[in-house]
């Protein structure tokens, strides 16, 4: 299934929600990936019959719901869109994002019904569709062999999604993807080109196979196995014709 077909399916689903919002006042998608959110934004922000809000339940959320509202009807109640859950466990066990998500999937829960998962030393928090919260609280009792205690919390108790950034300044010969990738992760351009060709690189949450794709300011780079980085600033050209950049590398 190619990207164009998948995007067409997504837009068709969103059009159905728009029709419902016009008729009933509000309609919302399940949780979208960052790439899906970008596509929805590009397609629907200029509509006048509905207003579009992308909301993940808390500040900085990557996975969001597309909420369409009829301006004549007013807004929406966030508590109707999200339930926040806290998953406590014994602090001697270190649970990963994969542990939590895998255990949820084992319960038959679809990924698109769960928002971001934020981890702490002794607990995790995440948001879900409200209609699933009761089932999760009752049945999400273990992740592997680790016992869990799940409870509902207020949306205002959710922490902002904050990730440590290591800031790096550099110059690059050009703003091609392979050049910026090389700078961000300290690898050769040849190695960067190999990673791109192998399909391991995403630009702004979408797979990119073009080494010569131009990277613009505020673009997100992601490499499976290496991590993520953001091109934070493009700040001029040196006397030798190299471009000054500032990159934020997310803690690995």
Task: Please give the order of strands in the largest beta sheet.
Answer: 10-15-14-13-11-12
Instruction: Report the biggest beta sheet as strand number plus sense, adding barrel if it closes.
Output: 6 strands, antiparallel
Distance between the termini: 32 Å
Rg calculated over all Cα atoms: 21 Å
The DSSP helix count reads 6
CATH superfamily of the largest domain: RNA-binding S4 domain
Strand % is 25-35%
Helix content: 25-40%
Q: What's the CATH class of the largest domain, please?
A: Alpha Beta
Question: Which consecutive residue ranges, at least 5 long each, have pLDDT under 50?
Answer: none
Mean pLDDT: 90
Describe this structure in words.
The protein folds into three domains: 3-80, 2-Layer Sandwich (Ribosomal Protein S8, Chain: A, domain 1), CATH 3.30.1370; 83-157, Alpha-Beta Plaits; 165-250, RNA-binding S4 domain (Structural Genomics Hypothetical 15.5 Kd Protein In mrcA-pckA Intergenic Region, Chain A, Roll), CATH 3.10.290. It has six helices and 15 strands. Helices cover 27% and strands 32% of the residues. It has 252 residues and is an alpha+beta fold. The strands form four sheets. The chain has a six-stranded antiparallel β-sheet with strand order 10-15-14-13-11-12. It has a four-stranded antiparallel β-sheet with strand order 5-6-4-9, covered by helices on one side. It has a three-stranded antiparallel β-sheet with strand order 1-3-2. It has helices at residues 3-24, 34-44, 97-106, 133-139, 177-185, 189-197; strands spanning 26-32, 51-55, 64-69, 83-88, 114-119, 123-128, 142-143, 146-147, 149-153, 165-172, 201-203, 206-207, 220-223, 227-237, 243-250.
